[in-house]
Amino acid sequence: MESHRHNVVLIGFMGTGKSTVGKFLAKQLNWSFTDTDAMIEQKEQMTIAEMFEARGEAYFRSLETKTIEELLAEEHQVLATGGGAVLAEKNRSCMLKNGFVVAFIASPEAIIRRVSSDQSRPLLQGNLDERVHSLLEQRKQAYDFAHMTIDTSELSPERIARIIMKRLKAIQLKAMP
Ligand SMILES: Nc1ncnc2c1ncn2[C@@H]1O[C@H](COP(=O)(O)OP(=O)(O)OP(=O)(O)O)[C@@H](O)[C@H]1O
Ligand SMILES: O=C(O)C1=C[C@@H](O)[C@@H](O)[C@H](O)C1
Ligand SMILES: [Mg+2]
Question: pTM for the complete prediction?
Answer without folding.
Answer: 0.95
